[in-house]
Amino acid sequence: MKNFITRSSWHVWALTAAVVLALYFIVLFPTLRLLGQAFSSRGLEGFTTSLQGGQGDQNVLLNTVILGVLVGLLGMIGGFVLAMARTRLNFRGKRLFHWIAMLPLISPPFAIATATVTLFGKRGIITDKLLGLEVDVYGLPGLVIVLALSFTPVSYMNFCGMIRNLDPTLEEAAQSLGASHIKTLTKVILPMLLPGFATAFLLLFVEAAADLANPLALGGDFHVLASEIYFAVAGNGDVAYAAGVALALLIPSVSVFFIQRYWVGKKSVVSVSGKPAGEPRPLSSPWIKAPIAVLAGAWMTLIVLMYVTIAVGGFASILGVDNTLSLEHYRFIFRLGSDAITTTVSMTLVAAPIAVIIGSLTAWLVVRRLKKSAGILDLIGVLGLAVPGTILGLGYAIAYSSPTWLFGHQLLPAIAAGGSVLGGAVGIIMVYVARGVPASQQSSIAALRQVSVSLEEAAASLGAGPMAVLRKVTAPLIAQSMLTGFTYTVTRSMTVITAIIFIVTPETKVMAGQILDEVDAGRFGNAFAYCTVLIGLVLAILIATELLNRLVSRRSHTSKETV
Q1: What are phi and psi of 329, to 5 degrees?
Q2: Complete domains list, the chain, with CATH
Q3: pLDDT (tens digit per residue) in 349-385
Q4: How far apart are the first and last CA of the chain?
Q5: Which end of the chain is more exposed for a tag (fewer CB within 10 A), N or C?
Q6: In the predicted structure, residue 445 carries a pLDDT above the cut 70
């Protein structure tokens, strides 16, 4: 095994160099260029001002922390409740329950915010028309609700896996010793899920603190670090100052990400048997079932209400004011926004395979080829996810809005922002790739660690070189994990705006950007229509990928049996 892993050829070294070079240009170079601006005199001024609270009356650093903590707590609890409902309650329609819970992951960032304003704003359908209340959803309260609804699926997926892996015999043992159902929950189940609670909170804290789209749409006068970065660039054109503010956001975001990944992620509570002895038993105590059912039902009702509003809003003239059915919004987006639809799908389908290839090759090098430097390459690979999208996008604007030079020779033309090659499409695709590589890398690493190296050793003993083994043996065995990376990249790329807001151009329009324009202009009907089309496109691609995944699964199973 050791001989196989360490034996290399020039092909492997060339492949390693290519992967490192790719990761350098899509993640490291723009991040380093941003840090260069951040440590300039103007950048350091922005950094110190941010640490002191910002330029205005508000303390934007404190606002960011408060927002992150509240969203982290609410999303953590929401994810736990939804996961308990799906795994420990008996009811029909669990598959539908799961899909509804996951809807926020495949919708654009403004979808829930726009629906919230329509339903619960000062002139909202529910607050004003039904209840006669005047409620201001702009600011911290609205942001907390919208961000918690948007990011709870991350917490939900984390808890679903952990709850299913709990050993049910531990609960049986506790109850056989006289523990009540509530005491079993508080003394057995919850302590074993503590790493999951920490992971969910930290992930949601980072997501909320780094989010830009929702603060722009719903923040009102409540400013956070991400919006300060945006206003410094869009309002004043002060890129160096924005880079300094970005540094104030980058340090805690990256720190929390790696705390979660390398410390909390390794904390776990191991059951006595080492693995579950059976399926989790349904909850039987009404004192536990009732609160979970009520909270999960309320949460799901709110999500359904949001997406029904989005779907109906695209067909109403002005939802809540003039509910006359009309196709005018769809005529508008297909007449004036067809380029954005085509461009978004095209760039996504270009970026996703590239992200899968780079991520899978990085995983292969980390697990199978490299030894001492494996950890470094793994770290570089996940930077695309560790660095907040706003900061990565600003780094691209700094690094690639002008030609890239090395020792007096031009390596690259301008590939991002205005005046760049292909209208900035190359830069946007690179951002999509940078954000998609970590998911493909981590899923492939997990798959490779489950595949016995003896299969590759056998092929090598028959004379196959490392590249032939990779192509004909390893790749087919991890095909499903590669499809997972593809799915993630498609979902994130189709709906992202935060990471590309500084490099989009009039020549290269994306759907998420068009939705932001419609929301800013108050044309919510057009925004709803865009959201519906975008969600439909993402679902269509996901369904096609799922069908392909089943086909690959059958072939992979057959190949393993043959081997």
Answers
A1: -65, -40
A2: 1-26+325-558 (1.10.3720.10), 40-268+285-313 (1.10.3720.10)
A3: 999 999 999 999 999 999 888 888 888 999 999 999 8
A4: 18
A5: N
A6: yes
